[in-house]
Every structure is written in C-alpha cells, then in structure tokens.
C-alpha cells in the first residue's frame, strides 16, 4: 500500500534555525531516505518552502478569490512529505516513528489507488 | 442447544479470525460465516455432523466468500488463493491477530472496544449499543467507520512485530479491562468472562498476568455481589459464594514476583489482600503509594488515603487528600472519606459538614440516605 507521510513542524523554529541545525536535519533526512531505499519503499517526496510563500485560491460567489498565505494559519505548518510503499499501516507507522525524531508531527495518510485502465 | 448452536459457540470466534485474516474484510468474513452456519443448520440435521465441523464450516465459508467476491467482480486475482481443499481445518488460531487488529492504536479507544466486542467476542450491534447506552444506529455507524479505517488505512490482521509488541499489548490490555469493567458494571458476566478468556490467550507478560489476576479476583465475586437486584458491598458479601478456584488461580499468578510492578499488577495485589481477608493495611497502603506514584490518579490517591487511615490514622490520611477537591469536585467519595477522617479525629462538627456535602453529591438515593444518616448521628 502507498502512504503519504505529511510532516508538520513549528515553522518559526525552522525559519530561525542556524546553519548547523539545518545541516543536522538534512543529514537526518538523508539517513531516512537510505532506510526507505533499503526497503525499496521510497516513492517520492519534497520539502516545501515556508508557508508565508503560499497563495490560497478558492471560489467564492462564482469568483476566484486569492489570499496571501496558507489555508490554515497555525503554528505547525505542512513542511514537506514523503510518499512510501509499505506492507501495511504498521510498516508505515514504523517509518513515521523514524521521521518523528526529526520533525514535530507526522500524519500518515493512505493514498487512494485507482485501478489502472 | 442444537449441534449447530454448539458449533457456533465453539468455533465462531476462531473461524471469524481466520476468515478476516484471509479475506482482509470484516464484512465479507462475517457474511460468509453466516452463510456457512446457515448451510450447517440445513444440512447437518439431514446428513449428520461432519467429522471435523470447524473444517467443514471454514471451507463452506471460503466458497461463499469466493461467490460473493465473484458477484462483486472485484479482487478477482485473489480467487485462486482462496480455493483450498475441502474439510481443511484452520491451521492456526487467528483470534489473537484479530484482537490486535481491533485494538490497533491507530483506532480511537471507543472504536477499539466496539470492534473487539463485535468481532472477537461476537456480540450483536444492539447488545453493544445497550452496554454503552447509545442508540443502535450510533453504534452501527461507529463500527462501520472503524471497519472502513481498518481497510483503507491498511491496519494489518496479524501478530505485531517484536518491536511493536509492548505498546500493542498495552493497548489490548486497556481494551480488555474496559470490556471487563463494562461487563462487571452491567452484570453481564459473559462479557466479563470473555475479557478473561482473551487475556489468557496473550503472551504471559507481567502486566498481562497482573490484569488477568485482577479480573479473576473481581469476577470471582460475581455471585455474591448482587442480592435481590441490589449491590452488596464487599464487607457484607457471603464469602462462601466466592469462586475459590478463580481466587486461587489469581493468587498463583501473583506469586511470581514481577521485575517492576505495573499498574495492573499493583491493583491485583491490592485486590488479593481483600480476597484473602487479611486486612494488612500497612501493605495495602504501601501498594497504593506505588500505584499513586505510577499513575498520579486522584482516585488512586483517595483510595490510598483510605488505606492510610486504617494503617496510620486520620491525620496522615487527611494530609493526602489536600488538593484533591479541585481535581474531582463532583466526587462524593472524597467528602465522605474526609468526613470519616474528621470524625475519627473527634471533630464531629466538621465531619457532619463533609457528610452533608457528600450526600448532596451522591448519585443514588441509597448512598444519599446513608450519608445523611452519618451527618445526623455524627457517630457513623
């Protein structure tokens, strides 16, 4: 089964992190990628730019309404995601536990897989 | 009881577990197993009971599952896996795998209990709804949502990996204890008994053994704790009505010292003191102190204070109750206990105030009358 591991963090601390801290976090993600690779589990993933660079678009009264900023203004923001292939939820949660040592909150969401054709 | 009913009682649980593990669908497993029992009800009285009833039922259920899936025209690629030789009995007991799936930490506590009652213990939806005092439709919707999550999120129906085991066992234990206390509270002995049966199936770890002993000790009093529909207090129970075999089993389970006593084992050790009628209040107070340190629960603190009252007197006990009122302002046991402690200190006026306050908070008329009387006499 495919799962998305959505990573939420307190953005402020990441924005204010010094170079050494950032290097440590990236190194941890490197190790996490290696773990996924060793299980042939990595199916993609990205780091997202800070939420103050986001633009939110919605339709209201037939018009496209654009607002500056993320959909929800919370302290924790979606900062990136991995797509993983796991045997079941237990394996996906095992990956999430590894990731939770680096990022604040990991939300594990099953990916809906539509039959081909 | 007919032969099919007997087979249903004996084999339903394990067969359900095997089918859920194989089919990865609660609904399909349930429907197919119902089909198989319906077929048995028709055929067994005519053809006789098959040599291996469980194997017979399993192969019929599997065939029906294949039929149903074929009708649904989905998952066709799994069909060859399901067709096995007729009469083959389940190779392993999947009940534990099913129990671990129903109690998965990814599910909410309410869902875990409902799923366990429905699919492991085999209660009907209306029965579970009555147990939790919610409408049938609410319980049915809760079960549907939970089954959906199991399927969609990929919650596995198997014994957990060794690394996951401690956390997963403790999730199962808390569901089993809740199941037990719900059964106990509502005088549904078979529900409480089911929790005990399931606890016996788990690997014998200290907390599992502790919980099993705790449940056995409480369950052993089921015949004595009710008279003419009324609750009988522990002190007033006819001890000859207690189940001696269950108490003995619990005491043997507790005789092996634990490496580090967990909350269930500590509660069981306390219950054991009450079961053998040796009111060693100093030991009981020491056990409550350990439990208090571990859990930080205000209810435990209150019970500890009552044990301390008997072991060391009212002054030490009163000190333990400080700050508890803020934590449980509506609990009538707290002012009742404080009243008793003040009475023993000789402060009858303050004691009467506490008993009156307790009476105001008491949930039942019996308790209210009892507390009002204490407030009036001032002597207990």
Topology:
The complex is a heterodimer of chains A (117) and B (380).
Chain A: E1 2-10, H1 11-15, H2 19-38, E2 42-47, E3 55-60, E4 63-68, E5 76-85, H3 89-99, E6 105-110
Chain B: H1 3-23, H2 26-47, H3 53-72, H4 79-82, H5 95-102, H6 109-120, H7 125-131, H8 136-153, H9 165-185, H10 189-201, H11 206-219, E1 226-227, E2 230-231, H12 244-255, H13 263-275, H14 281-295, H15 298-312, H16 314-320, H17 324-327, H18 333-345, H19 348-361, H20 365-377
Antiparallel strand pairs in B: 1-2
Domain YCII-related (chain A): 1-113
Family (chain A): Belongs to the YciI family.
Pfam family, one (chain A): YCII
Summarize the structure.
Chain A: This is YciI family protein. The complex is a heterodimer of chains A (117) and B (380). With 117 residues, chain A is α+β, with helices and mostly antiparallel strands.
Shape of chain A: flat
Query: How many alpha or pi helices of chain B?
Result: 20
Total helices of chain A: the number is 3
Number of domains of chain A: 1
What characteristic shape of chain B results from the CA principal axes? elongated
Query: Helices and strands of chain A, in N-to-C order?
Result: EHHEEEEHE
Q: Low-confidence parts of chain A, pLDDT < 50 over ≥5 residues? A: none
* Poorly predicted parts of chain B: 75-87
- Rg of chain B to the nearest angstrom? 25 Å
Give the helix level of chain A as a range of percent. Answer: 25-40%
Beta fraction of chain A: 35-45%
Number of strands of chain B: 2
Profile the largest sheet of chain A: 4 strands, antiparallel
CA-CA gap between termini of chain B: 52 Å
CATH superfamily of chain A: Dimeric alpha+beta barrel
Oligomeric state: heterodimer
What structural category arises from helix and sheet content of chain B?
mainly alpha
Instruction: Return the structural class of chain A.
Output: alpha+beta
- Strand order across the largest sheet of chain B: 1-2
